[in-house]
Amino acid sequence: MRIAHANPNTTRPGATRPAVSFIAVLATLWALGTGAQAANELPVADRVLVDKSERWMRLYDGDEVLREFKISLGQEPEGDKRQEGDNKTPEGRYTLDVRNPDSDFFLSIRISYPSPSDAAAARAVGTDPGGQIMIHGQPNEPRYSPGFYASTDWTNGCIAVSNLAMIDIWLMTRPGTPIEIRP
Hints:
The chain is of the alpha+beta class. It has helices spanning 18-32, 34-41, 116-124, 146-151, 163-172; strands at 47-51, 56-61, 64-70, 92-100, 108-111, 134-136, 159-160, 178-182.
């Protein structure tokens, strides 16, 4: 079953965004001091590791696993991403580079795909490598049941997690955090 979803880097005019509500609540807590204290107590990951075959993501500080999350992948999860539209999640070493609190999904963090070697490999065979690969939460306007999203590879190549997991990932990573995605 193919499930098309919107680009997590875009928004629709006039759409209500739960992520904005999250940011507003976080800012309010921060202003009151309780959010700042709670966020300061969260460890910051120095790297992220994804295992596609086992469907998990781990946040690490050195050798210590800080958190582990169940993930959903692209609709064609086997193999490395080679081109736009192949519905595969890339494999390799990247960084977390841009955060979007106002995406079509509950928060999104872009992965720096394509790397220069990914782009060169795609050019060599005359294709576009694609892009806008994200870690994101659930759709703001779901078309299916929560159980579907929790048990199916449903993205166009992104890495999806629960909204609660996305809050931890958002708060425990920084721009530039390395991410390794293994087969």
